[in-house]
Amino acid sequence: MENTTQISLNQEGVSQLRKLGVWTKILAVTQFISCGISFIIGLLVLLFGSSGAMFSSEMGEMTGLFRTGGVVAAVGAVVMIFTAIMLIPALYLFRFSGQAKAVALQRTPALEESFKYLKLHFKSTGIIIVAGIAFTIVATVVALIAVAIFFTNSQNSIS
To answer: Are 98 and 25 within 8 A, CB to CB?
Structure first.
């Protein structure tokens, strides 16, 4: 037997839920557009970075920005991957917005669905934030080690 609890909303609650559905849909669509733009930029960086590396290697010595073509292409790939990951919370928020409207129309089964998607939105956002913080810490440590190695090598070459 399923344990159920009755929830009732007055007109003000229904009105607020309807408004919440509209605003969460606006936010989700904005996130979709931002992710699309970021993905295109990442793709362009990937293509131009890798073509810059190939162009410079055909010319012989790699100079200036062309020397870092592989790194630029890798940055483009990372941007594309991160953008694809950021689509997950936007999708859950979009699904919540549709279900919130259904709840406002007094469709009771939609309430469970709407809360499920809202929970998944915040859960995935939290995971992404924690992963971003961990990545930042690791990248900072790696950068500090790289700088220390660079300065050690440059001091040895001066001596």
So the answer is: yes
Q: What is the pTM of this model?
A: 0.70
- Residue whose entry in the numeric block shows the structure tokens 């089964």: 109
CB 25 within 8 A of CB 94: yes
Backbone angles phi, psi at 7, to 5 degrees: -125, 130
Name, in order, each residue with C-beta under 8 angstroms of 89's C-beta and a sequence gap of 6 or more. Answer: 31, 121, 124, 125, 128
* Run of H or E residues at 29: helix 11-59
pLDDT digits over 38-95, tens only?
A: 999 999 988 887 665 555 555 555 554 445 567 777 888 889 999 999 999 999 999 9
Instruction: Express each pLDDT in 30-40 by its tens digit.
Output: 999 999 999 99
Helix, strand, coil % in the chain, rounded to nearest 5? 90, 0, 10
| Amino acid identity for residue 151 in this structure | F
Beta-carbon count within 10 A of 69 CB: 20
Annotated domain spans of the chain: 11-158
